[in-house]
């Protein structure tokens, strides 16, 4: 794993990831994705976080004029039923 300490940036290379498990845990309704790293640590993302990452990825990959997207967390008091209050939005 490459760690750039100047601004605490961690870059995960493909070889740093040993497993990715996407599942809906028993008793839950939403997807969780766990990324296991070569050092044995793991990070679990909730569905809304993965959805935001996918939206950002697709936005940059599919728009020939776009090379950067920034999503920022904010509370959304008036939202659709079932959506989290905290959202990552443009």
Describe the model.
With 90 residues, the chain is an alpha+beta fold. It has one domain. The chain is built from one helix and seven strands. The protein has one helix at residues 47-62, and strands at residues 2-4, 9-11, 17-23, 32-37, 42-46, 72-75, 86-89. A hairpin with an 8-residue loop joins β3 and β4. It is globular and about 40 Å long.
What percentage of residues falls in helices of 4 or more residues? 10-25%
- Fraction of residues in β-strands: 35-45%
Sheet of most strands = 3 strands, antiparallel
Average pLDDT taken over every residue = 93
Q: What is the approximate shape? A: globular
Uncertain regions spanning at least 5 consecutive residues: none
Summed up, the helix count is 1
- Largest sheet, spatial ordering of strands: 3-4-5
Properties at a glance:
alpha+beta, two-stranded antiparallel ribbon, 1 helix, 3-stranded antiparallel β-sheet, 90 residues, globular
Short description:
The chain is an alpha+beta fold and 90 residues long. The chain has one domain.
Note the topology.
Layout: E1 2-4, E2 9-11, E3 17-23, E4 32-37, E5 42-46, H1 47-62, E6 72-75, E7 86-89
Antiparallel strand pairs: 1-2, 3-4, 4-5, 6-7
